């Protein structure tokens, strides 16, 4: 599955959340990550985020697509962290 995660969280937790998400997804812009995950990886990500955020103050949005071929990605301006499809 292809996942996009966007978050708005308190400053104290930003570095921890960013470091955690980089284990699973590609960082594409401030507070935005995307990439392919298995079902179990996605469950680990959701569980890990729940442990890191404050649910009364923070917001994490995720978008799930069955395949990246249905996602059209565009950019206006400078791309902060280009995603490479090369291994």
From TrEMBL:
GO molecular function, one term: metal ion binding
Cofactor(s) it depends on: Mg(2+)
Pfam families for the chain: CRISPR_Cas2
Keywords in alphabetical order: Antiviral defense, Endonuclease, Hydrolase, Magnesium, Metal-binding, Nuclease
UniProt binding sites for Mg(2+): 8
The EC number(s) this enzyme carries: 3.1.-.-
Stored Gene3D superfamilies: 3.30.70.240
Coiled coil start-end: none
Source organism, top-level taxon: Bacteria
UniProt xrefs under InterPro entries: CRISPR_associated_Cas2, Virulence_VapD/CRISPR_Cas2
The keyword Magnesium belongs to this UniProt entry's keyword annotation: yes
GO biological process: defense response to virus; maintenance of CRISPR repeat elements
Residues spanning the signal sequence: none
Oligomeric and partner information: Homodimer, forms a heterotetramer with a Cas1 homodimer.
Protein purpose: CRISPR (clustered regularly interspaced short palindromic repeat), is an adaptive immune system that provides protection against mobile genetic elements (viruses, transposable elements and conjugative plasmids). CRISPR clusters contain sequences complementary to antecedent mobile elements and target invading nucleic acids. CRISPR clusters are transcribed and processed into CRISPR RNA (crRNA). Functions as a ssRNA-specific endoribonuclease. Involved in the integration of spacer DNA into the CRISPR cassette.
UniProt name for this protein: CRISPR-associated endoribonuclease Cas2
Organism: Carboxydothermus islandicus
Gene behind the chain: cas2
